[in-house]
């Protein structure tokens, strides 16, 4: 138990099927002129049109910035901030990338700070425009995290971490995740489970009882729901959206570690979606960590997978890694790096890149040397 900890989250979390239809009332704090930050994929679903018509009926003027792409580069952030000029509020609508860009646009549109000076922890100070975030995937939990990730250069990622990025309102409508493709549901769902697992086991000095409690509840929901959510069961969709939000709250305050550190080079170099990158290395990192620190994983195992009750630390952690790999496979995710045409001779370069993720590696229960990262990639290949 830490002597001191800080727990920040979004001040208003609004959850329920069909809430998008009540957007006009709920978005009132954004003021009379709202920029919607989203992507082209979501434009095609009609969800953005529903948001626009709800706001328009209430007399709220809307602009749309719909050019967000996965792993958004700095240019996209600048363009969204530019589009926000004159607006009174920002509505981020979409997956994690759209929400991350919306957070930064709300801050940069004010013109008090520039992007290069806000990278890192606590450098973004605001003020920012009023901000509402509506996720359409159950994965990143970005609607309750104080983090935005930006791609700088060809593949490097930088984070802006500051409580000022927490939105005023997180609105979660599980109906918006209905019909999300199976592969995206599976990958984003595993990402959310990794957030809970890494938050629970994090060696961050700010690991705290609230994060651990949230992680347990998140894994209880998502362990039971993921496979059914992939089959588009509405109740499971709701459990996944709730679980991913709880996991987001957990890791926003007890940050993630080596699974994410090893996932980033896969996504950066080979354009593999973030959740799938995590799924590919997850069991191997857990097996590596369990050599010195099996306890947290053995504790989590029966919450995510009730049949894993009553096992000792080593046995429980091993069974947990196995059950997670099985779950990802049953959800249709490819199990090996080679399945994604990642060449074996790229692994040393990826291991080198992993070592740059010091922000994440510092939270890992077992120290990761470059040779360890390489061995984990080889096991995952
Ligand atoms: Fe993640």
Number of domains: 2
Low-confidence stretches: none
Helix tally?
16
Derived structural class: alpha/beta
Bound ligands: fe (ii) ion
CATH architecture of the largest domain: Up-down Bundle
User: Termini distance?
Assistant: 38 Å
Strand order of the largest sheet: 1-9-6-4-2-3
CATH 4th-level superfamily of the largest domain: Dehydroquinate synthase-like - alpha domain
Largest sheet report: 6 strands, parallel
CATH topology type of the largest domain: Dehydroquinate synthase-like, alpha domain
Characterize the quaternary organization of these chains.
single chain
The value of Rg in angstroms is: 20 Å
From the spread of the alpha carbons, the general shape counts as globular
Into which percentage range does the β-strand content fall?
A: 5-15%
What's the gist of this structure?
The chain is of the alpha/beta class and 381 residues long. It contains 16 helices and nine strands.
Keywords:
alpha/beta, Rossmann fold, six-stranded parallel beta sheet, three-stranded mixed beta sheet, 16 helices, 11% strand, globular, binds fe (ii) ion
Secondary structure elements and their pairing?
Elements: E1 12-15, H1 23-26, E2 33-37, H2 40-43, H3 47-57, E3 61-65, H4 74-83, E4 89-94, H5 96-108, H6 115-118, E5 120-121, E6 131-135, E7 147-152, E8 156-161, E9 169-172, H7 182-201, H8 209-230, H9 234-253, H10 258-270, H11 274-290, H12 295-304, H13 313-330, H14 347-354, H15 358-361, H16 370-380
Helix pairs in contact: 4-5, 7-8, 7-9, 7-11, 8-9, 10-11, 10-14, 11-13, 11-16, 12-13, 14-16
This protein binds fe (ii) ion.
The site of fe (ii) ion has 5 residues, from helix 7 and helix 11.
